[in-house]
């Protein structure tokens, strides 16, 4: 059995074991699942007028013993969910496991990929990033605020009436645009304008698995019934709106990264998730429509690239010159949690900005504990202390009560009290709703050990605040001691509004997913971080700011946190860079963002990790925090072509068939194998993982090519900050460029001694390689990891 077949069967088994009961609503038996089928398009028999007819015939042939396509060009009712023809060639359909295996055996079929269900990774940020409208020069001016660039947002749809999407003073729709505004329920064609120039929705994959859409809670249209897509779209390209705030918090001007860029929305996320077959259809449509940037704030299980529909679709987009940015995921602060890790995708983690929303807890013993909140309703009575209980010991039925799960709290014990709830399992705002239903007057939400000290502000439905793990322990201890004394535990929450100029900032957000890259450790991921904590952006009318069904409050803007919010910052910045440098490839844009990123905060010290309060590392932030103004003029770039990625896959020991699945190219790996290893992909970071097999020393080398996009007749000299205990040499030490566009090579040699590690243990060290001509500073992280085999 080949490696690809092995992975297919294992992945198929996993997905079958995770099947939801809702699939019974499908018209097929419960063992039928959605598969994405990739074909060789040139193999279509001439008898079929279209590829769609051929695909229908292929499915009809499953009932025949021959397994050969029927010659009938009209095979009858279709089982096909989507057909793909731009970034991917093939179709998606509901199949039984045995049908999937039979289709995979057909000579014209390259791959049969089991569908994954992905999930969402859920202002002052332009100012924090240095994008100011009054500057006489800079990225906004040079790019004309992103005018005529099109950002495609693949998400939950959009609320088009928001002022963030007005088309005032915008020119005509770019002539290259081929997309459409799909008129549908609650979304007339007039919903689009010269700002929102395209809107589509894709639900066949969703409904084939979850059953018919409930149109009382969801819109069968591009209209957003969740809020996430409206929020991310306005972060990427929202217009200037004043005044803007959420329940009185974060008052000021709201603006996206590229205020004059055009938007196209592709709705693929529904109540039960975002389905691969729909996501692939959105990519296919977006590239055909003519987008310049795709922003994707969803993720799922990490699998090899040839089984990853997002990685495959993103390659097809990159190949046509479309920049793809994707959220790194919210699985932090643990290691190996980063998602969307293909090297042709720009992977974005989350950091803080210099703004927060303090809401402190005052305990009955006089102790003040820091917290954060966006609660905007009637507050607790000033000066009054309220009875305080911990739901896990006296508020209800033990463990579920400690988490303030639905129905877990005893109203007779909770009424009139502030309740301490543990974070986890159910949504943060949902816990407050449970406390409120039980008669509680307030809530303190305490992080668990895994969450650490990172705090997320929420628009709670009752007076509530969030505190870190250590402070949660202190409050529990106070409750325990005070409960045994003559002074029962009491507390109140003091809301302090919006605070600006917070130091330190940025800080790596606790939830932001971390490296190393679980598939390709030689490619450092995430690539960069961007603002993702407590971000103000547009919000729909039909969803309360807490996201709870019972929350009937309305707000034009909401404050959310997640790598979902960080990703569209980079999407918008990519549009600005593309507008300023139309000749740049997606890899060049990523390079400019990475090599100009910074790793120090506003105190001049290494950025902290919010979860621990310690210094963060390259596994947390990648190349660092984006610096848009410097990215506009990076000096040198590390560029890549689709053929470079083919060589990378060859050196990753992918089979020729697997490479063709990802790239749609028949590869010849002989040259790539001779050229080196996966670390020689011309990436802006350098990373190597050594396996210690008893050798006293280990070494490797990196070959890189840089392109001059700065000044002609410029000379760059190298400086190296070697990782601890690692010998690093760079040859040559000087690069002399005579013209713009000239390419020069250099070699980095790395040598390290074996260190003592426990079986299965690892040790990571980091440094950097920096080129400078006195005007530009071009920095690449250098990461060396030592691993001890079991």
Briefly, what is this?
With 790 residues, the chain is α/β, with parallel strands linked by helices.
Structure commentary:
- The chain is α/β, with parallel strands linked by helices and 790 residues long.
- It has 21 helices and 37 strands.
- A hairpin with a 2-residue loop joins strand 8 and strand 9.
- Helix 7 runs parallel beside helix 15.
- The two termini are 26 Å apart.
Present the secondary structure layout.
Blueprint: H1 3-17, E1 33-39, H2 51-60, E2 80-84, E3 90-95, H3 97-104, E4 109-114, E5 117-120, H4 125-128, H5 139-142, E6 150-155, E7 196-201, H6 204-210, H7 228-237, E8 241-246, E9 249-254, E10 262-267, E11 269-270, E12 273-275, H8 276-289, E13 293-296, E14 298-299, H9 309-319, E15 323-327, E16 346-351, E17 355-356, E18 359-363, E19 368-369, E20 386-390, H10 391-395, H11 399-402, H12 411-414, E21 418-422, H13 428-437, E22 442-446, E23 464-467, H14 469-483, E24 490-495, E25 499-500, E26 528-531, E27 535-538, E28 557-560, H15 563-580, H16 586-595, H17 618-621, H18 628-631, E29 636-637, H19 642-651, H20 656-663, H21 670-675, E30 686-691, E31 697-708, E32 714-721, E33 726-731, E34 734-737, E35 743-753, E36 762-772, E37 777-787
Parallel strand pairs: 6-10, 6-13, 7-10, 13-15, 15-16, 16-26, 20-21, 21-22, 22-23, 30-37
Antiparallel strand pairs: 1-3, 1-4, 2-3, 5-12, 5-14, 8-9, 11-12, 17-25, 18-19, 18-24, 20-24, 27-28, 29-31, 31-35, 32-34, 32-36, 33-35, 36-37
Helix pairs in contact: 7-15, 8-9
- Tertiary shape: globular
Mean pLDDT: 91
Unreliable stretches covering 5 or more consecutive residues: 14-29, 70-77
Q: Cα-atom Rg, whole angstroms?
A: 27 Å
Q: Beta-strand level of the residues, as a percent range?
A: 25-35%
Ends distance: 26 Å
Figure out the total of helices: 21
Largest sheet, spatial ordering of strands: 7-10-6-13-15-16-26
* Main sheet specs: 7 strands, parallel
Number of strands: 37
Structural class: alpha/beta
Helical residue percent band: 10-25%
